[in-house]
UniProtKB/TrEMBL annotation, chain A:
SUPFAM superfamilies on file: Periplasmic binding protein-like I (SSF53822)
Keywords: Signal
Keyword Signal: yes
Protein source organism: Marinobacter panjinensis
CDD domains: PBP1_SBP-like
Signal peptide, first to last residue: 1-23
Source lineage: Bacteria, Pseudomonadati, Pseudomonadota, Gammaproteobacteria, Pseudomonadales
Protein name from the UniProt record: ABC transporter substrate-binding protein
Top-level division of the source organism's lineage: Bacteria
TrEMBL record, chain B:
Pfam family, one: BPD_transp_2
GO biological process: amino acid transport
Protein family: Belongs to the binding-protein-dependent transport system permease family. LivHM subfamily.
Keyword Zinc: no
Predominant localisation class: membrane
Taxonomic classification: Bacteria, Pseudomonadati, Pseudomonadota, Gammaproteobacteria, Pseudomonadales
Subcellular location: Cell inner membrane
Cellular component terms per the entry's GO annotation: plasma membrane
Keyword check for Nucleotidyltransferase: no
Species for this entry: Marinobacter panjinensis
Segments passing through the bilayer: 20-40, 49-67, 73-92, 104-129, 149-168, 196-220, 232-254, 266-285
UniProt keyword list: Amino-acid transport, Cell membrane, Membrane, Transmembrane, Transmembrane helix, Transport
GO molecular function: transmembrane transporter activity
UniProt-recorded name of the protein: Branched-chain amino acid ABC transporter permease
Membrane-topology descriptor: Multi-pass membrane protein
């Protein structure tokens, strides 16, 4: 009896001690480093406004967590894995940064996630597209939050094939992201009974797409798909319009298009284009309410990346609050155990490979007549349920996934 | 259908046409660079930024004042040209006669500042500019669909290139310019205001870049970063043509447009590198470039 009592007491005491050691916020500060393209190609879709979204999240959370203050540092990744790596190394090794947020270019994310793993810190990826980030490049130290190339192909490509676009011409940006997207799209097209008759890889970046559009026209394919992003996509769409691609009966499919791209093109040039998105500002009252606040702060409507940064920051801070710790594994586990229900996602789940699985949406750009203002751009055509949209764990090559 | 290396002749004809159109842009831009380098010995790394300012100015003139395309095509180069003159007067003049590297670094710095400031204000997604009504649509040439606007680009670019060449090589003003840069003290002795002439020449070179930008506004995405990519290509064109050669810049510009166009058909991945490959080969065989004057 006494022995049992002693044992119990010591067990409780040690549990408390361990708990006490874990339930601690280092330096009594939660420090978040925001790393994103602040000046280059991906500036508008993430950039300084993403930092604003992060700050909104911290302000909404109350500015502190369990009495510990929340600090933010930020840096321009210049789309360079090298300079980003040294920034993040400095942050985590010398400046006690607990979380790296933003993470836009896939090459940057892959480089940075290795450093986070070495130092056992946490990263939340909101901008990068490559699905390999939670597949062959997965680590226990990052979460991929907003979208990836897998649902982009699943959403847009399968919808366009089902509407009768059987033969495909794919125009691909000649680097890792373009290749990944081209591969995913080819798979989806073939699975749905279509055929890719030609692929052309263009240098990244390219300002003049007229030659490629002419090749696409002479290929006679039903669908001309753009496996590129940012200015490359908008330039290609503008040129396709100029050369009368759609008037001659071909369908144009942009596989990755952000709200900022569509806004730059305008409804006149972009009307009718189908795209896949992880979120849209005008979906419901909740998204509109948050977007209005974002617009008051920034003067523009948020992209899915901006919204994802806000949502993921709130989830992170909630996890820190619940566990009383800023230890990366404790927080990551708590985030995985808590479904995400906010203006960004409903019943979103973070899987063991770090993929945040949530519903995606197939959207179509409105015509100028349908569009009520310069940001009224999408009609949501279909919801793609999360488990349909993302790569199933059974196909995962991630080292964290224990397959049966 | 007749084919060359597995590609139908009709497709190749289309690419040839597009090559000439892109070549016209290269010709216009490299012409400005060649004028500035040939006459002032300034390596103008701000040339891409001036091209961008021309395009941005066209869009902003329309947005703010409703200025139409034709007026902007004249006004934007004049405004940007005046800005060039101000830059020359306050900055470039101070390093005149020094090593080329100073002008290169100074103009590169100016370009980065302009690009950075405008990116902060307007972002990088691009500003919208509608195609002028008169150029909507195009004609079917049998082998390709040629948008009217692209045809206009060729005409406008070639006219301006010819006019510039004529002015510099065949007129009295041109001869003053050439003489002023050869021996400025002698020219000043003749009572000619050489510093003014230099300012005007720099302003004119900048105007050519801004004109190319205004021409580009309806067809390319207009953003603060649009000049940075094209600049390196244009420098390669000028080097191939022979630094400072006016005719060389124009002819090489057109040729490189065509070479790039064909590469886009046979090996698209290499289309960004092909001009540099040509540059390497040309420099090995003729270090002064195809049309360069000195051996």
């Amino acid at each position: 009896m006494t022995i049992t009592k002693k044992l119990l007491t010591s067990a409780v005491a040690s549990a408390l001690l361990v708990g006490g050691a874990q339930a601690e916020i280092s330096d009594n500060t939660v420090k978040i480093g925001y790393l994103a393209d602040m000046s280059g190609t991906y500036r508008d879709l993430a950039g300084p406004n993403g930092l604003k979204a992060l700050e909104m999240a911290i302000a909404d959370f109350g500015g502190s967590v369990n009495g510990a203050k929340i600090e933010v540092v930020s840096a321009d990744d210049r789309n360079s894995p090298d300079s980003s790596s040294s920034t993040v190394r400095r942050w985590v090794e010398n400046e006690d940064v607990d979380l790296v947020a933003g993470l836009v270019a896939s090459s940057v994310t892959i480089a940075v996630s290795n450093i986070l793993e070495e130092n056992n810190k946490l990263g939340i990826v909101s901008g990068s597209a490559a699905s390999s980030i939670t597949n062959e490049h997965c680590t226990p130290n990052h979460i991929h939050y907003v979208y990836d190339t897998y649902p982009l192909a699943n959403g847009t490509a399968s919808a366009v094939v089902k509407e009768g676009g059987k033969t495909w011409f794919i125009l691909t940006a000649d680097y890792a992201f373009g290749h990944a997207l081209e591969g995913d799209v080819t798979r989806v097209v073939e699975e749905n009974g279509g055929e890719v008759i030609q692929t052309v890889r263009h240098p990244f970046p390219t300002s003049d797409f007229s030659s490629f559009i002419l090749q696409a026209q002479s290929s006679g394919a039903d669908v001309v798909a753009l496996a590129n992003a940012g200015a490359d996509t908008t330039n290609a769409i503008t040129t396709a319009g100029e050369f009368g691609l759609t008037q001659s009966g071909q369908t144009l499919a942009a596989l990755l298009l952000f709200l900022t791209d569509v806004h730059a093109l305008g409804a006149q040039s972009a009307q009718g284009i189908q795209l896949t998105t992880g979120w849209y500002w005008d979906m419901n009252d909740e998204t509109r309410e948050w977007s209005d606040r974002f617009m008051d702060e920034t003067g523009v409507r948020p992209t899915m990346v901006h919204a994802g940064i806000y949502s993921s920051t709130i989830q992170y801070l909630n996890a820190v609050k619940a566990t009383g710790s800023d230890d990366s594994q404790t927080v990551r586990k708590q985030m995985m155990d808590t479904p995400i229900n906010d203006m960004f996602a409903k019943n979103g789940i973070i899987r063991e490979d770090g993929r945040m699985v949530h519903d995606m949406y197939l959207a179509e750009v409105k015509t100028p007549e349908e569009s009520k203002n310069e940001w009224d751009l999408y009609e949501i055509v279909r919801t793609i349920p999360g488990d349909e949209a993302y790569r199933p764990l059974s196909e995962s090559k991630c080292k964290l996934v224990t397959q049966n | 259908m007749t084919e060359i290396l597995g590609v139908p002749v009709a497709v190749l004809s289309g690419q040839l046409m597009l090559g000439i159109i892109n070549g016209s842009f290269y010709a216009l831009l490299s012409l400005g660079l060649a004028v500035i380098f040939g006459l002032l010995k300034i390596i103008n790394f701000a040339h891409g930024a001036m091209y961008m300012l021309g395009a941005m100015c066209t869009v902003l003139l329309f947005d703010a004042f409703g200025v139409n395309y034709w007026v902007a095509l004249f006004l934007a180069p004049v405004i940007v040209g005046c800005f060039g003159i101000v830059l020359e007067y306050f900055l470039l003049r101070r390093i005149a006669g020094q090593d080329h590297i100073y002008s290169l670094l100074l103009t590169f710095g100016i370009a980065l500042i302009l690009q950075g400031v405008l990116t902060n204000i307007y972002g990088v997604s691009g500003l919208r500019y509608s195609m002028p009504e008169v150029f909507r649509g195009g004609m079917n040439l049998g082998f390709m669909f040629l948008p009217y606007y692209r045809a206009w680009v060729i005409v406008a670019a070639l006219l301006v290139c010819f006019g510039t060449w004529f002015m510099i090589e065949k007129t009295r003003l041109g001869s003053y310019l050439r003489a002023g840069t050869e021996d400025s003290q002698l020219m000043q002795g003749f009572g000619i205001n050489v510093p003014l002439l230099i300012s005007l020449t720099y302003g004119f070179g900048v105007m050519l870049a801004a004109f190319a930008g205004a021409l580009a506004a309806p067809i390319y995405s207009v953003s603060p970063v649009m000049g940075s990519n094209i600049l390196i290509v244009v420098f390669a064109v000028v080097v191939i043509g022979g630094m400072g050669s006016i005719a060389g810049a124009v002819i090489t510009g057109l040729m490189m447009g065509v070479v790039e166009g064909f590469t886009k058909v046979f090996y698209p991945e290499g289309s960004a590198a092909v001009i540099f490959l040509v540059m390497v080969v040309v420099l090995l065989i003729r270090p002064s470039g195809l049309f360069g004057k000195e051996a």
